[in-house]
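Sanity check

After download, print the first record. It should look like this:
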Amino acid sequence: MSVFLIKLIQVILSLTILVVIHEMGHFIFARLFGVRVERFSLFFGKPILRYKPKRSETEYVVGWLPFGGYVELSGMIDESLNLEQMKQPPQPWEFRTKPAWQRLLIMVGGVCFNLILACFIYAMVLFTWGDAYTPLNNSKYGMEFNERAEAIGFRDGDVLVSADGKAFDRYGGDMLRAIVAADEVTVLRDGSETVIAMPEDMNLLDFNKDVQPFIAFYMPMTIDSVVPQSGAARAGLASGDHIISVNGTPTSTWTTFTTALSQLQLREKEGDIVNHDISIVYDRAGVLDTITVATDANFKMGVTVALPYEPAVKEYGFFASIPAGIAYGWNTLKGYVSDFKYIFTKEGATSLGGFGTIGSLFPAQWNWYSFWMMTAFISIILAFMNILPIPALDGGHLMFLLYEMITGRKPSDKFMEYAQYTGMIILFGLMIYANFNDIIRFFF
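Expected structure tokens:
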């Protein structure tokens, strides 16, 4: 099965789960308060599948456009834009006749269910696989830093200790956010603690501009294993060989080695003619030699290095996994909300992605752990994005409901109609823009 097909199946399956659960949240609260649900739609567009059980008021459909979904509630101006119904006298089973607090719960039901789903998935992942992470305090060689980090004051070999007095636990996104937000970072250098003053204008987007990571584990570029039949294997490279340079670029560590290959890939993407047969200088038992190694389409040559640290896994029993999953979901939500501010910058706007970006998040080979972790993360994103105060989103309806509850005045149907149209234009505009960014990144 091709990589594209594997990723496509994962995207469709993940979105199907998330949309069904989200809309089920609206559906359950609507039925709980006696609101008639006219249609439960998975995805948008003209239905390609439809089913209405006997003695049921609800039609279940699948649309052709795999982007979200909706439940059509009687007496509500929503995605269905059933305006004729709103011209009829209000009925007791309609959304518009229910108290504002009930309508509010119906609107937040989808967001709540997405958050519950994410926490449940995280809990079951922790129960099944445990919490695997990379501790920072047992790195054999410390960390490696790029030029931006070295200009601030970091040095290769530093061991991260704390940010503003809060000890580092593990390598990951929380670590980077702590570094960006800190006034000072403490490292262990040559056996002594050194305090590094952090600049005030740091942000995570600056890190993404650099080909070489801001911070990574220091891993000497000594080959641990060679993939059979790979370019490295055919060239005669073997375990224990230390790669000195790639096409003349020094590569004493795994990070500088992969960065050199990434730069070749970037040059090719920008239109340069780049030879995939690269010149390698390596050291074997103190003897230097130069060979030519053929790389694949992605400039991979088929070598790995040994990890300079011991991975850690924290195991959870079933009952312990529940609060741990909730804490994991809450921390993920906080991290995403913290990063969301970058969307309003020029660099952040260009980083928006559509279906192609979502697909790239999933692994090229089927892996249930990765699938569920990514599905939980997207569920967090879906919950947060839906609660934004944009007309046509749950947050938009919530905003108007709160206005009604505070002022005692309900917005007119005509206003809600225009708001719905405006919101749909905004959402489809964002969708087109995000997918256009994917196209630009793919071809240019």
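If your output differs, re-run the checksum step. Summary of this record's structure: The mean pLDDT is 85.
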